[in-house]
Specification:
The protein is an alpha+beta fold. Helices cover 32% and strands 28% of the residues.
Length: 390
């Protein structure tokens, strides 16, 4: 709670394209100073970079903003930035689901109800003024399936992998005291990649390999654009019934590919075909966060330093994240999951990867949860998305 004698909370709005957007980006660097786990995206992913060829998501050039309205708020106490939040109306999401949801995202705050309330009030008022009836978050801008989302509520002792969030334990309490309630939980599973694949999975995979109508191949780097398009085609079909699903556009797929192309290992991405038809895809990526995590040294943690560290170590990263896995509905329950898991994990072990994070898994997606557990993985992190009436 806000203590007597503290300076009042002042909230500054920074619209999309506003000149002070860097102040919004800087907030968590103040709040997480010295945290051994927190790993933010590169500033270039947020603010853009011609050198890295990235359109930052906080800039008007990013394809996200062709279908959304957004704004940003920073909370100040005197000269100290003590929190931030974004507000967004993702029109494509609402049109797809037939809803009127206003989202809050990029949420950060000191452990102070007055700060969290001031920020959330501003975001809620902003979406209410645009006719929204539900207030949901936190996400990146929203909580579509391909965005960073959720507040970590379990597994604080583990560092985040690429594209996942990390926060102090008190964030959930701040949101719940504000009046927000659970919308959905999302899980991460941990797999020890040094252990043999469970025998029952190997047996099932071998049975599927003997089928004449099933073939498997790795991604072809020289045709990355075509391969990404095929991944998105399968993903959009396989994930269509999941909570929060929103089809990924070609432009969004290209933006995601730009952020991951530096660390892609083609052997970790496999397609399965049945009778020549693309039926399933499984894609894991080496985790760049192992190199990008701030070191909090005197020389700083600029993008240049973090990227240089990544380039020096990118072929020796010990951890992977299984970022996407989908089987089209007509091809489910045919053992394709076992086949792809066995192929990718066997390859990964041979390349020296030690562990794999499988995430984000919606708590209601029992098929993928069961498949992960059958591989010997166990749940080690939980995030929560919150909502309330506007």
């Amino acid at each position: 709670m806000s203590a007597a004698g503290k300076a009042p909370v002042r909230v500054e709005e920074i619209p999309l394209g506003g000149r002070r957007i860097a102040a919004f980006v800087d907030v968590p660097w103040r709040l997480y100073r010295g945290d051994p786990h927190w790993t933010p995206p590169l500033r270039a992913e947020l603010l853009g970079s011609r050198i890295l060829g990235l359109d930052g998501i906080l800039t008007p050039a990013h394809p996200y903003h062709r279908h959304a309205e957004v704004t940003h708020f920073v909370a100040w106490r005197g000269d100290d930035a003590v929190g931030r939040v974004s507000a967004a109306v993702n029109h494509r999401y609402n049109d797809y689901h037939g809803e009127r949801i206003g989202f809050f995202g990029f949420f950060e705050s000191v452990d102070d109800d007055a700060v969290a309330t001031a920020l959330l009030d501003k975001a809620r008022e902003w979406v209410a003024a645009r006719g929204m009836t539900v207030f949901r978050g936190p996400g990146e801008y929203s909580t579509a399936t391909h965005e960073r989302m959720g507040v970590l509520i379990e597994g604080f002792q583990y560092p985040p992998v690429v594209e996942l969030t990390h926060n102090p334990p008190y964030y959930g309490r701040l949101l719940e005291r504000y009046g927000l309630g659970k919308a959905i939980d999302l899980y991460a599973y941990h797999l020890d990649a040094t252990k043999p694949v469970p025998k029952r999975v190997v047996v099932l995979a071998e049975r599927v390999r003997k089928r004449q109508d099933v073939t498997v191949r790795s991604v072809v780097p020289s045709r990355l654009g075509e391969e990404v398009a095929l991944i998105i085609e399968i993903y959009n079909d396989a994930w269509s019934e999941n909570w929060g699903f929103l089809p990924i556009t070609d432009e969004e797929a290209a933006a995601l590919a730009d952020t991951l192309k530096t660390i892609v290992d083609p052997g970790l991405i496999r397609f399965a075909y049945v009778d020549g038809q693309p039926a399933a895809v499984l894609g894991a990526f080496p985790d760049p966060n192992c190199a990008l995590r701030p070191r909090w040294r005197w020389y700083g943690d600029s993008d240049a330093i973090r990227v240089a560290r990544l380039m020096l170590t990118r072929r020796h990263l010990p951890r992977t994240r299984l970022l996407f896995f989908g089987i089209r509905p007509p091809f489910r329950n045919q053992g394709l999951d076992a086949l792809l898991y066995d192929d990718v994990l066997s390859y990964g072990r041979g390349k020296g990867y030690k562990e794999c994070d499988i995430s984000l898994l919606v708590e209601t997606n029992h098929l993928i949860l069961k498949a992960s557990e059958s591989m010997g993985a166990h749940r080690y992190k939980t995030w929560r998305v919150y909502e309330m009436p506007v």
